Amino acid sequence: MQHAVIAYDHAVIRAQTEQLLLNIVRAHAHRPVHFTAVSNVAATFNFQVNAGATPPLGGLDGGFLLSPIFGGSISENPTISIVPIEGQEFTKRLLTPMNEATLISLMRQGTGIDMLLRLMAGELRKVDGEQEISFLNLPSRKGLYEEFRKRVLHLASLQQSNQLFIEPLTFDQTWIVHFTAAEALEAVEKGYHITYDPKQDVYLLRRHVTGRVVITNYDPEFIPNTERVELEEEAHTGLPNDLLVDIRPGFPGGEYPLHGKFRLRSFHSMLNFLARGIEEEPEYDVPNDPRTKPIPFNPAHTLHILKTQKSPETAALEVKYNGAHYFIQDDSTHSWNQETFRLLYQLFQMTVTEVLGVHVPRITIAK
After folding, report:
1. Neighbours of 341 (CB within 10 A)
2. What is the C-alpha to C-alpha distance for residues 3 and 313, in angstroms, rounded to an integer?
3. Beta partners for 208?
4. CA distances in angstroms from 197 to 176, 204, 339, listed in the order given
5. Cα dihedral across residues 83, 89, 92, 95: positive or negative
6. Residue 244: exposed, middle, or buried by beta-carbon count in 10 A (0-12, 13-18, 19+)?
């Protein structure tokens, strides 16, 4: 049973990873993507042992003893439930844009911000006075795409030197209130702080709040509370999949300032982006801005998927579609491709809700 559980786990993961690559290839061929999930694996094992004795072929004459007979058998009857991802679950898992909580949780696991934003962000909306400029993460939009890449490289450089802050804003909210003693006691019990302002002869109700995530080149705790409140209000004016960035002059990396929002895309949009990068809209090398410190590795492709007519000899993962072989090269030197695909797989798993009311996958072994 121990070997069976490991074998089933290996088979499920391999099927999911190949299905993931296959759907990128389907999108490349302008075909609909289709995912299935293994909701349940149930295996029944039957062990049988038998023993007996039989006379020898020449009979018992001559003093021959009975010949022993031993036998045994093991049978396995696995039942695997496969459920297509469709309807409301398809919308939630594939078409709903990612949120900042997903990006932050992956960053805290050590994933680089350049890899995350190149995969998850569809555009950078920069605020320049009253004008908003959208730098699209699309290689076909050459100037906008290059500016997007340069901005991401600048953030990666700051992260590399431990000068990038990506944390939720914390600030104090204050209200002028008039209430009775009972209302004041109720407010204190709910975590509010009450102070008296003798100049205005009023009571101030204060609460410490944790807000949206902001990417900065300074510690937000060291700027005035009013500025933190303004940043929070700006962050809340955007969509749930918008991530505010504020790189200010006067701080590390401030010679290349930026104030705007990264707009995160859906998992389906990520697949389409990678699919177009195979042939239709390939990515290309973009050097860093002169104001950015160099970083060790800046690959041209977010995920480099190759296409050949013959099966490749060295491939980390391969699928065949319409007579062609699509594969991810085994780049053991930097492992960028493998790490990007692992990130894509993690993002897909983080979208898991439930399949027919059952968390997936579940393996049941019955004796």
Report:
1. 20
2. 29
3. 172
4. 10, 7, 56
5. positive
6. buried
What does the pLDDT look like over 3-21, one tens digit per residue?
A: 767 777 777 788 888 899 9
Q: Is 307 helix (H, G, I), strand (E, B) or coil?
A: strand
The neighbouring-strand residues paired with 34 are none
- Give the model confidence (pLDDT) of 112-148 as tens digits: 999 999 999 999 998 776 778 899 999 999 999 999 9
- DSSP E strands: which ranges in 288-353? 305-308, 317-321, 324-328
Amino acid at 329: Q
| Prior bond of 361 cis (ω within 30°) | yes
For Cα atoms 160, 119, 264, give the angle at the middle one, nearest 5 degrees.
Answer: 100
Picking from 244, 291, 16, 264, the residue whose alpha carbon sits closest to that of residue 116 is: 264
**Dihedral sign of CA atoms 206, 209, 214, 220 in order:** positive
Measured distance between the N- and C-terminal CA atoms of the chain, rounded to whole angstroms: 9
Q: What are phi and psi of 126, to 5 degrees?
A: -95, 135
How long, in residues, is the chain? 367
Which is it for strands 242-247 and 193-197: parallel, antiparallel or unpaired? Answer: unpaired
Place of tokens 């209302």: 183
> Residue 281 — φ and ψ, nearest 5°?
-145, 65
Nearest C-alpha neighbor of 307 from the set 278, 286, 339: 278
Flag whether pLDDT at 307 surpasses 70.
yes
